[in-house]
Design goal:
Blueprint: H1 3-16, E1 30-35, H2 43-47, E2 54-59, H3 66-79, E3 83-89, H4 99-110, H5 126-138, E4 149-154, E5 161-164
Parallel strand pairs: 1-2, 1-3, 3-4
Antiparallel strand pairs: 4-5
Length: 173
């Protein structure tokens, strides 16, 4: 049986005790942009917040792409979240390659270079990446300036969060 088949079977069991009140419109309090890494899946445990309070946006890196910015706008302007937390982590797979390296490797291994250059949002330093992502969010005109945007790095070895301080982007005069 495939993993997907096992998941579908497990869902049938889950549905038997599903609480239909969970189907009401979400009203999260905080938007969390985090990596797709499964080690960050227990956000209620990591952050000490109930599932219902967290609007989770998962992306590789975690890169604040145009799509993520759109989701943050909806989260803050439509769903009503009042804070944004960017959550990076140590040991991220996106630090193990560069975009150029992965494009070359995939083009060679598949024999098809037509998707290249693809943007994978690789990076080398979690703190620097987090700071850059904070600046991307803070610079978006549709994300209100009174919405706190803070970034953290989760240490996968200790389970602790370390806050990354934003350094304001320099503007050309």
């Amino acid at each position: 049986m495939s993993i997907i088949d096992k998941a579908v079977e497990a869902n049938r069991n889950y549905a038997k005790s599903y609480d239909p009140t969970l189907g009401k419109r979400p009203a999260p309090k905080i938007a969390v942009v985090t990596c797709m890494d499964p080690r960050l899946s227990d956000l209620p445990g990591i952050l000490g917040l109930p599932h219902a309070d967290i609007d989770v946006i998962r992306t590789g890196g975690p890169a604040v792409t145009e799509d993520v910015l759109g989701e943050l706008v909806v989260s803050t302007r439509v769903l009503g979240t009042t804070e944004i937390l960017l959550l990076n982590h140590t040991g991220c797979g996106f630090t193990t390659f560069t975009d150029d390296e992965l494009n070359a490797k995939l083009s060679a291994s598949t024999g098809d270079a037509s998707p290249a250059p693809m943007r994978f949002f690789s990076y080398s330093d979690p703190e620097q990446n987090t700071e850059e992502q904070i600046n991307k969010v803070r610079s978006h005109p549709w994300i209100a300036k009174d919405v706190p945007v803070r970034g953290f790095v989760f240490d996968v070895g200790t389970g602790l969060l370390r806050e990354v301080q934003r350094i304001a982007q320099q503007t050309a005069s």
